[in-house]
Design a protein that fits this description.
The structure is a single chain. The protein is of the alpha+beta class and about 270 residues long. Helices cover about 45% and strands about 20% of the residues. The protein has 11 helices and 11 strands. The protein has a 4-stranded mixed β-sheet, with helices on one face. A 3-stranded antiparallel β-sheet has the order 2-3-6. A two-stranded antiparallel ribbon has the order 4-5. Helix 1 crosses helix 2 and helix 9 packs across helix 10 (about 220-235). The longest helix has 17 residues, at about 200-215.
Length: about 270
């Protein structure tokens, strides 16, 4: 059995919001496995946020850029080790300069090999690692193309998003920024139901059924009730189905259609640090 430390219990408490004793019991039951402990808490009815694969446990700057025609965007993270460096003006300038360059490349490997400031991007990062005294590297590199692309960077450069729309119509710029802000604030797992990974769906159904068993619901009723809970999961966690943050009476999809009846959200990218 793994030895559970107070620091591990506190980390789980801060991540999930569950009580200290519940966190300790979950870690003991999971034999110290952090992700398994989160799942155990959720099965026992704790309101724990669904896991997000795009979260990076590092400091740095997340920057989104869009080309002049608003048809393509890139979002990158320039990672470092401390918040002190992440807030440094020259570090943020470097992140922005690199993001501008990244617009011209389709993948991270080609971008790292690109010329920049008399050397390659990769060599520049190595140079800065020596100068700053912290490991400096490109973490995320995400591209998005659409008839119209908008972006949003949250204050402090900790979250950056891109959103694609189906057409460049009047009001598209404001709509794209609003939806990009939505993606930053509400952290959806996918664009719509079809985009949710089957493993996530299976896990949500399993968790819902276990919660219902804990409540004493008959086994014969579990499938139907679990499907209802899954539909709620889709509403809360897929971008186009979420309540619009500026007007909770409509979904994101409905808001976009209010701008233009044929307008839809075609995709999004989100990078988060910390």
């Amino acid at each position: 059995m793994a030895q559970i430390t107070a620091a591990e219990v506190n980390k789980l408490r801060q991540t999930t919001g569950a009580g200290m004793m519940d966190c300790k019991k979950a870690l003991v039951e999971a034999d110290g496995d952090f992700e398994k402990a989160i799942e155990i808490l959720r099965k026992k009815g704790q309101k724990v946020a669904a896991n997000r694969a795009d979260r990076e446990s590092s400091e740095g700057a997340a920057i989104a850029k869009v080309n002049a025609g608003s048809t393509q965007g890139v979002v990158i993270s320039l990672n470092c080790e401390t918040d002190f460096v992440a807030k440094n003006e020259s570090f943020v300038t470097l992140a922005n300069d690199l993001a501008d360059l990244a617009l011209g490349f389709d993948n991270k490997e080609a971008f790292l090999a690109a010329p920049f400031s008399g050397m390659t991007v990769a060599d520049k990062l190595t140079e800065q690692t020596g100068v700053i005294g912290e490991k400096i590297e490109i973490g995320s590199f995400e591209k998005l193309s659409a008839p119209f692309v908008g972006s949003y960077i949250h204050a402090g450069n900790k979250i950056a998003t891109l959103v694609g729309l189906s057409a460049n119509v009047d009001g598209a710029a404001e709509a794209a920024k609003d939806v990009a802000m939505q993606a930053a604030a509400m952290n959806p797992v996918a664009l719509n139901e079809e985009g949710v990974d089957q493993s996530i769906i299976d896990k949500e159904i399993e968790i819902a059924k276990e919660q219902l068993r804990q409540e004493g619901k008959p086994e014969a009723m579990l499938d139907n009730i679990a499907k209802g809970k899954l539909n709620r999961f889709f509403k809360d966690n897929t971008l186009v189905n979420q309540d619009f943050i500026k007007d909770s009476k409509v979904s994101v999809a409905q808001y976009v259609k209010s701008v233009d009846s044929n307008l839809t959200v075609t995709g999004f990218k989100r990078v988060a640090l910390g």
